[in-house]
Write a sequence for this structure.
């Protein structure tokens, strides 16, 4: 296509372009936000109007000028559907007229130029929209990535907090349990062995008490750091308080774990400077080491904990190795102790009686009540199996009360022609020291109807060892009631003669070990001891019963010495009362 | 339950963002479908909403020009939103290239977008913070790096206060900012008002913005004037934004339809 337009530039064009520009600016106002002043806008539009005018008249006619104008408008942020519509309208209606443009095919050219403006404008708008969409999406993605990273970091931090101790930053019990369980559940080889060292600082409370809790915390931090350094490669965890644990995986045997324990002992024992003082802390360590196969985390922890207590009980500042046999024994003892209350409730305890016979005429003077436990699983247990435990735990108090009441009840029902025997009951140290003993005895005597003189209470020398006056007063009041008081196992304790003077004792029971030496015809040291005890007792107006008399020879010697009574197999084993009474007829 | 400080912000582009809705009003394409849906609902409720946003943006431009002419070289733009056309730093760095601008917004995407746009511009920065924590804004190391608060600074809080209800004590927030500023510093405020608008329009607009998590809190002229406490308002005071130092008399026609009230105040020497 050829163009035959002849262009003329009429006078007054400047005022014309000013009017057109103003009209264009007015049309654009409010179409979208224009980040410029009105003057800047008019300046821009003026330039673009000149370009359009020039393009209309140019030879050859070049549509690219129209596209450039459209692109420039969008670049100047005159970028909205309304802005394009109004631009087309204003240019179509006003450009040729206001600028007085004259050309043969100007109408045709204007239509094509506006089409080019629209094309350039729309293309730029599309690019701009795509760019902006991309940029906001990139921003959202960047933010999401950042948020995810932050989330991962915060999860890692949370996980660290959940698995580490806040004070020392050592792994805590959770992480330790996790690692121990993993080591046990997924061993690398079937023959893998594993070791634990349980640590507990010795008398750590004293650090807190003497230097304050802050100092205590510093000691713990210091200990944690040293353990961490001394035991690299092993998991060192703080279980809480002043308790730590070391996990040693894939040990080659006990020796490896002992080496770790030695290293831990040495690291902890190094003095630490705390609050201007040099503080030396020691630790006890319980070691357990075994094959992974068949082990459980709970059982290992319990074994290590129990071994730690052995180390403490042995004086602390040392390691102790787990001993399964010792553990079993202790467990049995503990189980037995725990079963005593239920055993009392279910009536599993009963009494046997052992005769105390006169050495002068063989007459039955009394019987000693001896408690038995008919254990549902272990069978009949003698007192040496459970009295010690009962004394340690205080269960001796209810058990002893039951024995006293039962013995008195039984003895109250006996009747023997020619002298009914008294019943002798052992009182534990705790019972003697309990307030209310006198009242208790009195109540039992009243309920059972047993005359007080038919009750003998056996106390050990150790019951009298304490400086307290209350037990002495209680015994005096019991003696005043008429109850007999015997010292059991005399000669094996401190044998303090002073209390024989002060106490209302009626009888001494000489320990069986002296009696065991009374064999031969020729007098031995034991016989001389027993003889002097007898003469001492008689001088104080006390009677003497020899325990553990097993043979007629021993009984003969004792009679010769002047001992009053004997007890032992020679006179009868412990058995139910009715059998003893039946023999007496 | 309050999120712990170290928990990252959630990015949910399904939820309309007021920053991206504002970009849409201004004719931008920095927005997602959810933003456009909410903005279109707003336009249905208040057909002039885009014009209002444009008028407010033009107010910001005139105010910043005014401050640059007054010699201010430090700008703190709180609630800067999507850095669409006519940024403060674009305006001011044309006039005074050594000016420094700190942008602040709570919207994490707006902040990420700003970071992209501002990359390489050593005299600008953007912080993700909330106007409700002025102490954190003022103490932020990035702000401290760029601004010397012993020198006059202009604080711009434009089209943001209507997201701060009275329960959040805006007067105290502004007081904290004011106390940190040197004599000769400036405050630019604008915010939506429901003066002279029908009740239905107000409730429809509120319903739209409740979806964004940034409900609207309208204030009238006297309430906004009170928030300039401690600043001397320059002429013409708190007015409909088109009336604030207009370029042409025509642009103030129908000024009250702009919904936005605005003003500029100065701390005396």
């Amino acid at each position: 296509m050829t163009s035959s337009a002849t262009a003329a530039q009429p006078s007054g064009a400047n005022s014309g372009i000013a009017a057109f520009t103003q009209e264009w600016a007015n049309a654009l106002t409010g179409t979208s936000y224009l980040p410029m002043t009105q003057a800047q806008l008019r300046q821009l539009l003026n330039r673009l109007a000149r370009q359009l005018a020039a393009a209309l008249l140019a030879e050859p006619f070049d549509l690219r000028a129209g596209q450039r104008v459209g692109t420039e408008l969008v670049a100047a942020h005159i970028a909205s559907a309304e802005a394009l519509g109004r631009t087309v309208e204003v240019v179509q209606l006003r450009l040729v007229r206001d600028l007085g443009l004259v050309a043969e095919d100007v109408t045709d050219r204007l239509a094509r130029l506006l089409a080019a403006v629209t094309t350039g404008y729309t293309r730029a708008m599309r690019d701009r929209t795509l760019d902006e969409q991309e940029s906001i999406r990139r921003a959202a993605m960047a933010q999401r990535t950042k948020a995810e990273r932050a989330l991962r970091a915060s999860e890692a931090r949370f996980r660290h907090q959940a698995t580490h101790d806040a004070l020392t930053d050592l792994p805590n019990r959770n992480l330790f349990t996790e690692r121990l369980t993993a080591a046990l559940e997924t061993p690398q080889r079937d023959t893998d062995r594993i070791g634990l060292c349980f640590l507990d600082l010795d008398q750590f409370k004293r650090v807190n008490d003497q230097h304050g809790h802050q100092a205590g915390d510093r000691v713990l931090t210091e200990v944690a750091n040293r353990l961490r350094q001394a035991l690299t490669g092993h998991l060192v965890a703080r279980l809480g308080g002043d308790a730590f644990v070391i996990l040693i995986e894939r040990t080659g045997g006990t020796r490896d774990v002992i080496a770790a324990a030695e290293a831990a002992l040495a690291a902890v024992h190094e003095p630490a400077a705390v609050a201007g003082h040099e503080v030396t802390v020691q630790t006890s360590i319980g070691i357990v080491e075994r094959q992974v196969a068949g082990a459980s985390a709970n059982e290992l922890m319990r074994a290590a904990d129990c071994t730690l207590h052995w180390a403490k009980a042995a004086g602390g500042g040392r390691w102790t190795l787990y001993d399964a046999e010792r553990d079993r024994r202790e467990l049995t003892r503990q189980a037995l102790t725990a079963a005593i209350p239920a055993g009392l409730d279910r009536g599993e305890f009963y009494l046997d009686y052992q005769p105390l016979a006169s050495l002068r005429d063989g007459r039955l003077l009394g019987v000693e009540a001896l408690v038995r436990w008919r254990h549902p699983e272990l069978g009949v247990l003698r007192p040496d199996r459970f009295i010690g435990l009962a004394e340690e735990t205080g269960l001796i108090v209810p058990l002893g009360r039951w024995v006293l009441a039962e013995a008195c009840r039984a003895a109250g029902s006996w009747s023997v022609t020619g002298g009914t025997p008294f019943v002798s009951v052992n009182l534990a140290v705790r019972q003697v020291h309990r307030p209310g003993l006198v009242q208790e005895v009195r109540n039992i005597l009243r309920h059972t109807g047993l005359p007080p003189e038919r009750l003998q209470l056996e106390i050990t020398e150790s019951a009298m060892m304490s400086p307290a006056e209350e037990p002495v007063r209680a015994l005096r009041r019991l003696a005043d009631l008429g109850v007999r008081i015997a010292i059991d196992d005399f000669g094996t304790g401190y044998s303090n003669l002073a209390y024989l003077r002060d106490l209302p004792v009626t009888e001494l029971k000489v320990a069986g070990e002296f009696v065991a030496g009374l064999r031969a015809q020729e007098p031995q040291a034991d016989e001389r001891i027993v003889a002097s005890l007898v003469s001492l007792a008689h001088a104080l107006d006390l009677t003497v019963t020899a325990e553990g008399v097993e043979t007629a020879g021993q009984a003969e010697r004792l009679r010769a010495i002047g001992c009053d009574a004997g007890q032992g197999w020679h006179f009868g084993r412990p058995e139910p009362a009715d059998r003893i009474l039946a023999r007496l007829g | 339950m309050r999120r712990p400080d170290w928990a990252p912000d959630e990015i949910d582009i399904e939820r309309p963002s007021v920053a991206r809705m504002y970009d849409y009003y201004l004719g931008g394409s920095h927005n997602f479908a959810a933003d456009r849906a909410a903005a279109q609902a707003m336009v249905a409720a208040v057909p002039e909403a885009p014009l209002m946003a444009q008028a407010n943006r033009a107010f910001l431009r005139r105010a910043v020009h005014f401050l640059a002419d007054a010699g201010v070289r430090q700008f703190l733009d709180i609630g800067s939103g999507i850095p669409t056309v006519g940024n403060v730093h674009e305006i001011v760095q044309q006039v005074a290239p050594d000016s420094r601008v700190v942008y602040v917004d709570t919207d994490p995407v707006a902040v990420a977008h700003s970071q992209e746009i501002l990359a390489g511009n050593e005299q600008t920065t953007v912080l993700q913070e909330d106007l409700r924590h002025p102490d954190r804004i003022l103490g932020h190391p990035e702000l401290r790096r760029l601004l010397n608060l012993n020198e006059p600074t202009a604080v711009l809080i434009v089209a943001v206060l209507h997201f701060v209800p009275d329960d959040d004590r805006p007067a105290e927030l502004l007081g904290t900012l004011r106390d940190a500023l040197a004599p000769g510093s400036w405050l630019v405020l604008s915010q939506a008002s429901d003066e002279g608008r029908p009740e239905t329009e107000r409730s429809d607009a509120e319903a739209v913005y409740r979806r964004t998590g940034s409900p609207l809190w309208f204030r009238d002229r006297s309430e906004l004037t009170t928030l300039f406490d401690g600043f001397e308002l320059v002429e013409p005071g708190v007015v409909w934004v088109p009336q604030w130092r207009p370029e042409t008399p025509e642009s103030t026609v129908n000024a009250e339809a702009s919904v936005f009230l605005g003003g500029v105040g100065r701390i005396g020497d």
